[in-house]
Design goal:
Layout: H1 14-27, E1 34-38, E2 42-46, E3 49-54, H2 61-72, E4 86-88, E5 91-97, H3 108-119, H4 143-150, H5 156-168, E6 179-182, E7 191-194, E8 197-200, E9 207-210, H6 216-219, H7 221-225, H8 231-239, H9 247-267, H10 272-285
Antiparallel strand pairs: 1-2, 2-3, 3-5, 4-5, 6-9, 7-8
């Protein structure tokens, strides 16, 4: 089994990513690309095409193959806009048909049904070589290393709250239960309400894990992230079962918020906006009664 997810390193040099995106646009006779956002990947819009630049851990062509495999099996995923893969040093670029969000609220019931189909996949349904590691391979879930890195930058009360959560949920890494193919990063930012319904995007963290891995973020969506309280019940109805009372899923949900906080602390070293958001999140771990809900960035 591959030891790493498809993308587990940030794109890094955004200027270099822009140069590659511009090369792609010239090659395909697209308009000059405009940066949309930067996360693990840098996304550029060039007319009706999104140029996705990143540093995958496996052959970049596999992203295109995966999308084709998923759609062939009735799973709503992005469509490649070109078959070519572009490479410059450690950076690679692929092209995707721009998904236009229609502005409707996310249809979580349909998303739940889609995820149920994902969980019914077998490794044989995926392209040969596409990484499906266990979540224990995700570096942002290595809490000992993360706390050693950023713990000294966190005040004592918040650090104590984080450490209690990590200790309380230490059994998460046993990954109890039956394992399925998971999307790996299910949250509102990875769902686009297109004309034909919801499309799941960003399959970079596809993994093999208990089904609750794909339920976990939605369990705290309303409480911690200010999301729609009806989202998880609708998702569970579409999926066919609620995992709100499953202990393993609850562990995933709580520790996902720990990881999200520690990663914002780390990002805050160089990004003032991330530093502000990290402070917002730390208020919860201090146990403040009036701790605000969190922002996605």
């Amino acid at each position: 089994m591959p030891a790493r997810p498809f993308v587990d390193q940030a794109v890094g040099d955004v200027d270099a990513a822009r140069v590659l995106a511009e090369r792609v646009a010239r090659s395909l006779a697209l308009p000059r690309p405009v940066l949309l956002r930067v996360g693990m990947n840098a996304l550029f819009r060039a007319g009706g095409v999104v140029v996705r630049v990143g540093r995958p851990s496996a052959p970049p062509r596999l992203a295109i193959d995966l999308a084709d495999h998923l759609r062939d099996r009735g799973i709503s995923a992005p469509r490649p806009a070109a078959s070519e893969v572009f490479i410059e040093g450690e950076l690679t670029a692929t092209c995707w048909v721009l998904l236009v969000d229609n502005g409707d609220p996310i249809d979580w019931r349909t998303v739940g049904a889609i995820v149920r189909r994902v969980h019914a996949l077998t490794p044989g349904d995926l392209p040969d070589g596409y990484p499906t590691p266990p979540p224990t391979a995700f570096p942002w879930w290595d809490f000992e290393t993360l706390m050693a890195d950023v713990g000294g930058e966190i005040d004592a009360r918040a650090r104590a709250g984080l450490e209690k959560s990590i200790a309380r949920n230490a059994a998460w890494s046993r990954l109890d239960g039956d394992h399925v193919v998971c999307h790996g990063d299910l949250h509102p930012g990875n769902v686009v309400m297109a004309a034909d319904g919801p499309v799941l995007i960003d399959w970079d963290l596809m993994c093999i894990a208990p089904a609750g891995w794909d339920h976990a973020m939605l369990l705290t969506l309303a409480e911690r992230w200010g999301g729609d309280p009806s989202a998880y019940p609708a998702f569970a109805a579409g999926y066919g079962v609620s995992m709100a009372d499953d202990v393993t899923t609850q562990r995933f949900a709580e520790l996902r918020n720990v990881a999200a906080t520690l990663m914002r602390v780390r990002a805050g070293r160089t990004d003032p906006a991330a530093r502000t958001e990290a402070e917002r999140r730390l208020r919860f771990w201090r146990g403040e009664q009036a701790a605000p809900t969190w922002h996605s960035q």
